[in-house]
Recover the amino acids of this structure.
């Protein structure tokens, strides 16, 4: 079933029961409004949870690699607030809908931050069952607002503790690492330092380095730097980048990666997948990535999921999470997004160096939920756009 | 204690000085207009609620910090720069297309007004990619063009995409004013500039200031352009705080921004209003002579820079880009239908709600009425993310049955864009001759019947113009749409956002072009309406 077909079906089934009251509400407003009523479309999930408990509906999930065939069948409609972009996650949703004809996902896309703010404002009355985000910081913040439910124990046990919430209120679904994007006409990989601090002090990078301070992963990176290196060193790093290196600040990851590819600035501290996508579109673009070693510059972060405390279908949501952690789900992230699996039983066979070879720093991802010290520091030093 | 006569005068000033303004009709308008004003201002109480969650010492520290003061100063400078530049661009262009013998005036009017249909974030993006340090125009021409960014870049781009507010209003005012007065002045040996200053300007000043008000409030609320140009203003600070999950700080900054908006509204209300002016006689046009060619060239250049540049960019995206297919980003006609449906609904609701509000603004010189009218403008000054979050909270907590349905989304648009309808409806009412209505009344037509059969047909062009403005700004709106859209009901704007944000540019091209074409059609409606008013 194509994506287009899917959207149309949910629109029809979702709106029918409420169309009448809306029509009455809008009353005499005429053709234009009638049109908008017709277009109003799917309103949250409707229906009730097909499952009675959040225990495994089929086999439990584990860290060894369980397949979709082993798990319980998904059915009904699940509402997901996604901070991940369509291209990164919609194919997985579509794949599951194809696998289970009686299952559909109402997707709501916005940025991580906007989704989290909405969830906080909505509280228990959220129409969403699940929050799917690309930053564990957003998940940790969700947890600290008391908006997440504890996941079933089999789900918790399937993921190593450094890739999920130790209290089991959220779990990582796939992993990514912060990277150094560089223009390969200007630099060769061997010339580039493997120490994040060198990018702030090495004179070769004056006027050449850029970053994107409004991104979630950048903020996570600063939180990690504060935690691992202390406030003084972090402040020094930020200040040096601003004052000595005249760092270029972008407000979009796209803009930044393109600027690196164009040679506008030859080094970009950011996410590796922006570079990957530009190369995907223009294979001859002079753009490449490298990684720092064992410092916050190569912070390992997870995208992940939490079942919301206000969910109408928490049990269906839990079974959905099992599917994400199963072999097909994990392999999807490797193949489609160039990400790392979080379940040990699924081997990584992508184009990047393995996590062991990368040497990201070890770090408790829940620390990423408290952004305030990092934001205060960036505000004080003026690294904002 | 005040003496009774004083208090009576004061009461009259609040409710209107003239006796007839205390008529049942006026009171009904006051009630309706008051209801509308309360409705559209209500979401802003959320700001107070959230700002109140910030610890007082922290709040004071934040509000008075050097950074906040700098941001405030920069926001004021941005608003001033954009507004002045828009007036300097919009007014001469309006004169050029109404008062001179410039050929193909309709075509040029369309070209001049069209930038309003292009979202300024798209304009900003086009400018940066075209004129950046390694921009496409520079590399194409082999030139090192001056880079457009920073504060000057933000002023330039916001001006280029909002000056039509000034142009459209001024143009309509010029068309409806009595040009024979100008001729009389000229026959008394006044030079063209003096005649313009002493005769024309006083008559079109309210229209200019109404347009300038929209430009100023838009500049204050725009997030995309300053962010793209790397300028920290209130909106970028608000976004930064809300993205860092500091919604309380964001609310606090929004309240500061609102204070600024209040000052702008106050200044605008002091610029004076013209008396009703209904005689529509056209004078003989100013002959341009050889000046017509540079004039045409200038308008052509403006069109090329503001319209062809982004459109060309989208077309180039469409042909380039070889990466894999992403079905979830593919254009579907449903996206366009969603956009059009929401925008039509917002236009309709805003026009209806604007009627009593605009009436209050013009009739009876009542302070309360004026205050209510001004009050409806604040939503236009507040960034969409703030209105969005306010309605997320209010909607989900007080009316869950409305939450994430089309009506609540449409309401969000009305909160944001109502002033555009109020402004044009108000201008139309100002141009309406009271005596006609009074004549109808003396013929024993009731106030409602008079309104329906005499007033409404007369002001219809203004009402429709307001509806068209609301329509085309709703087409472009992004943050509130993302937060409040019925789940899965994507619009052209949200699809552009999705494609652009994930670097799949070619998928942004089709929805962007469709958005421009559909909005362009509504712009034609707007201008045609204006023509028929002659």
């Amino acid at each position: 079933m194509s994506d287009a077909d899917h959207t149309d079906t949910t629109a029809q089934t979702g709106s029918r029961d409420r169309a009448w009251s809306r029509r009455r509400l809008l009353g005499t407003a005429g053709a234009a409004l009638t049109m908008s009523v017709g277009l109003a479309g799917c309103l949250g999930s409707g229906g009730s949870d097909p499952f009675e408990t959040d225990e495994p509906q089929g086999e439990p999930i584990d860290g060894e690699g369980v397949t979709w065939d082993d798990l319980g069948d998904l059915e009904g409609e699940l509402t997901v607030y996604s901070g991940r972009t369509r291209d990164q996650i919609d194919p997985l949703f579509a794949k599951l809908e194809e696998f289970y004809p009686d299952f559909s996902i109402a997707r709501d896309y916005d940025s991580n931050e906007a989704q989290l703010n909405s969830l906080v404002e909505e509280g228990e009355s959220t129409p969403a069952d699940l929050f799917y985000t690309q930053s564990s910081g957003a998940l940790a913040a969700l947890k600290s607002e008391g908006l997440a439910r504890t996941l079933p124990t089999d789900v918790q046990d399937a993921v190593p503790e450094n890739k999920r919430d130790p209290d089991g209120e959220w779990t990582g679904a796939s992993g990514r690492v912060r990277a150094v994007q560089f223009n390969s006409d200007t630099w060769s990989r061997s010339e580039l330092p493997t120490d994040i601090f060198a990018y702030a002090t090495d004179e070769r990078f004056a006027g050449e380095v850029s970053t994107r301070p409004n991104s979630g992963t950048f903020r996570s990176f600063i939180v990690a730097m504060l935690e691992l290196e202390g406030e003084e060193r972090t402040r020094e790093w930020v200040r040096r980048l601003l004052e000595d290196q005249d760092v270029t600040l972008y407000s979009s990851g796209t803009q930044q990666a393109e600027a690196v590819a164009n040679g506008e600035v030859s080094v970009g501290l950011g996410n590796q997948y922006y570079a990957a996508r530009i190369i995907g579109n223009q294979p001859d673009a002079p753009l490449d990535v490298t990684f720092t070693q064992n410092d916050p510059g190569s912070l390992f972060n997870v995208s992940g999921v939490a079942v919301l405390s206000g969910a109408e279908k928490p049990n269906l949501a839990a079974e959905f999470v099992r599917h994400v952690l199963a072999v097909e789900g994990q392999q999807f992230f490797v193949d489609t997004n160039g990400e790392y699996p979080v379940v040990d039983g699924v081997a990584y066979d992508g184009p990047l160096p393995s996590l062991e070879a990368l040497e990201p720093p070890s770090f408790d991802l829940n620390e990423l939920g408290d952004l305030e010290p990092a934001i205060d520091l960036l505000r004080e030093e003026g690294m904002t756009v | 204690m005040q003496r009774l006569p004083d208090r009576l005068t004061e009461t009259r000033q609040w409710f209107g000085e003239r006796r007839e303004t205390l008529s049942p009709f006026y009171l009904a308008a006051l009630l309706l207009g008051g209801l509308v004003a309360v409705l559209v201002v209500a979401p802003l109480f959320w700001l107070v609620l959230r700002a109140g969650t910030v610890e007082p010492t922290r709040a004071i520290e934040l509000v008075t910090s050097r950074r906040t003061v700098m941001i405030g100063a920069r926001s004021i400078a941005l608003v001033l720069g954009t507004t002045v530049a828009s007036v300097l661009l919009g007014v001469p262009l309006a004169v050029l297309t109404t008062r001179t013998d410039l050929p193909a005036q309709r075509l040029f009017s369309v070209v001049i007004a069209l930038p309003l249909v292009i979202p300024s974030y798209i304009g900003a993006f086009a400018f940066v990619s075209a004129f950046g340090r390694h921009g496409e125009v520079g590399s194409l021409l082999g030139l090192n063009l001056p880079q457009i960014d920073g504060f000057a870049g933000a002023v330039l781009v916001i001006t280029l995409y909002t000056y039509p507010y000034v142009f459209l209003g001024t143009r309509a005012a010029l068309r409806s004013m009595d040009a024979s007065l100008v001729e009389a002045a000229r026959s008394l040996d006044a030079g063209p500039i003096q005649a313009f200053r002493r005769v024309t300007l006083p008559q079109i000043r309210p229209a200019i200031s109404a347009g300038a008000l929209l430009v100023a409030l838009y500049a204050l609320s725009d997030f995309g352009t300053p962010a793209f140009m790397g300028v920290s203003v209130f909106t970028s600070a608000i976004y930064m705080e809300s993205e860092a999950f500091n919604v309380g700080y964001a609310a606090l900054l929004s309240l500061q921004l609102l204070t600024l908006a209040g000052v702008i509204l106050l200044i605008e209300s002091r610029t004076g209003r013209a008396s009703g002016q209904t005689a529509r006689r056209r004078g003989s046009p100013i002959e341009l002579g050889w000046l017509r060619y540079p004039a045409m060239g200038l308008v052509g250049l403006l069109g090329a820079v503001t319209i062809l540049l982004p459109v060309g960019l989208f077309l180039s995206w469409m042909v380039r880009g070889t990466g894999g297919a992403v079905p979830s980003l593919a254009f579907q006609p449903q996206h366009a239908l969603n956009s059009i449906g929401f925008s039509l609904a917002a236009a309709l609701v805003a026009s209806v709600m604007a009627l009593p509000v605009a009436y209050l603004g013009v009739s009876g010189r009542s302070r309360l009425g004026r205050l209510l009218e001004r009050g409806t403008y604040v939503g236009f000054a507040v960034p969409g993310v703030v209105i969005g979050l306010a309605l997320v909270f209010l909607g989900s907590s007080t009316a869950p049955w409305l939450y994430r349905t089309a009506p609540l989304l449409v309401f969000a648009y009305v909160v944001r864009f109502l002033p555009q309808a109020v402004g044009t409806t108000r201008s139309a009412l100002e141009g309406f001759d009271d005596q006609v209505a009074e004549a109808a009344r003396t013929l024993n037509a009731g106030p409602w019947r008079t309104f329906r059969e005499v007033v409404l047909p007369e002001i219809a062009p203004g009402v429709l113009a307001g509806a068209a403005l609301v329509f085309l700004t709703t087409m472009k709106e992004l943050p509130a749409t993302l937060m409040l859209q019925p789940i899965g009901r994507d619009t052209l704007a949200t699809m552009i956002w999705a494609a652009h944000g994930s670097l799949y540019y070619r998928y942004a091209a089709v929805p962007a072009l469709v958005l421009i074409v559909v909005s362009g059609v509504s712009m034609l409606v707007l201008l045609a309406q204006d023509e028929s008013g002659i």
